Amino acid sequence: MKDSLKIKKKLYEACLLFVNEKQNTVTTSIESNKRALFSETKSSAGDKHETGRAMLQLEMEKASQQLVVINQMKVVLDKINIKNSSVISCLGSLIRTNKETYYLAISAGKITVENTDFYAVSTNSPIGKQLLGKKVGEIIPFNEAKILEIY
């Protein structure tokens, strides 16, 4: 694949953007819930008030857990050196099979670069685990794909 370094750079940047957008969404949600929580005033319908506060607390806990996952994704991305190339697939590898082309990084889904679809997958995902440590010519059990190139 010509310009594999340029493509890896664009895929890496797309993954960073994906993580930053997720973080912004979750942070906005937390801030919104905080404002709602502090603006809740005790009304004559006390039970309704308590239920509303409990729901907001649950939403904030859920958002906090999402932030933990987002921060883990950032840690993974920090470990990637797009200039590294290996004959064995590893974190940061671009892997072309006879079916699809994968970028081993974080689970960011389909990313289109220069009119070509790539699938950003985590090394912890089922497909990522099957791709990790493979060499050109090997078959991965998922969709019986043969690895053609690793960058």
Describe the secondary-structure layout.
Blueprint (H helix, E strand, L loop, with lengths): L3 H36 L6 H33 L15 E4 L3 E5 L3 E5 L2 E7 L3 H6 L7 E2 L4 E6 L1
Parallel strand pairs: 2-4
Antiparallel strand pairs: 1-2, 1-6, 3-4, 5-6
Helix pairs in contact: 1-2
Structural class: alpha+beta
Can you write the helix and strand succession as a string?
HHEEEEHEE
**Which spans of ≥5 residues are poorly predicted at pLDDT below 50?**
none
Q: How much of the polypeptide forms β-strand, as a percent range?
A: 15-25%
The largest sheet has its strands arranged as 3-4-2-1-6-5
Count of DSSP E strands?
A: 6
Number of domains: 2
Mean pLDDT: 91
How many DSSP helices? 3
The 3D shape can be described as elongated
Query: Helicity range of the residues?
Result: 40-55%
Biggest beta sheet summary: 6 strands, mixed
**Radius of gyration over C-alpha positions, nearest whole angstrom:** 21 Å
Terminal CA distance? 8 Å
What does this structure look like?
The protein is α+β, with helices and mostly antiparallel strands and 151 residues long. It folds into two domains: 4-78; 94-150, no CATH class. 50% of the residues lie in helices and 19% in strands. It has helices at residues 4-39, 46-78, 126-131; strands spanning 94-97, 101-105, 109-113, 116-122, 139-140, 145-150. A hairpin with a 3-residue loop joins strand 1 and strand 2 (101-105). Helix 1 packs antiparallel against helix 2 (46-78). The model has no long low-confidence stretch (mean pLDDT 91).
